[in-house]
Amino acid sequence: MGLKDQFQDKAKQLAEKARESARAEASERSSQVEREAQSQPQSQPQKASEVFDDNFDK
Fold first, then answer.
1. How far apart are CA 27 and CA 37, in angstroms?
2. Which one-letter DSSP state was computed for residue 57?
3. Local structure of residue 40 (DSSP, 8 states)
4. HSE value, Cβ hemisphere, 13 Å, CA-based, for 21
5. Three-class secondary structure of residue 46 per DSSP
6. Cα end-to-end distance, the chain, whole Å
7. Whose C-alpha in 5, 13, 28, 49 is 20 to 30 A from the C-alpha of 37?
8. In whole angstroms, how far apart are CA 56 and each of 46, 49, 52?
9. What global pTM score does this model have?
10. Sign of the alpha-carbon dihedral angle for 32, 34, 37, 39
11. pLDDT per residue as tens digits for the range 10-52
């Protein structure tokens, strides 16, 4: 096996490892978002004008 082949194999391994890490991280983030959404009560979002009015005096 040549040096070039070794580098290509190592690059493929590292790329696969990076993809797996990205998938795991995305899965963890989505789980975290789900948990947060379930723990918080649903409320009506404020209109932008209400937020502006509330923060205008600050």
1. 15
2. T
3. S
4. 6
5. coil
6. 69
7. 49
8. 15, 10, 6
9. 0.49
10. negative
11. 999 999 999 999 999 998 888 888 888 777 666 666 677 777 7
Distance from chain centroid for Cα 40: 19
Tell me, what amino acid is at 36? E
| Residues 6+ away with beta carbon under 8 Å from 46 | 54
- Residue showing tokens 């989505």: 30
What pLDDT score does 17 carry? 95
Q: State the Cα torsion 26-29-30-35 to the nearest 10°.
A: 160
| Predicted local distance difference test score (pLDDT) of residue 12 | 96
Which token pair is 12? 């493929």
Query: Rounded to an integer, what distance in angstroms lies between the CA atom of residue 55 and that of residue 42?
Result: 22
Q: Which residues contact 27 (CB under 8 A, 6 or more apart)?
A: none
Could you tell me the two tokens for 51? Answer: 């937020």
* Overall size of the chain counted in residues: 58
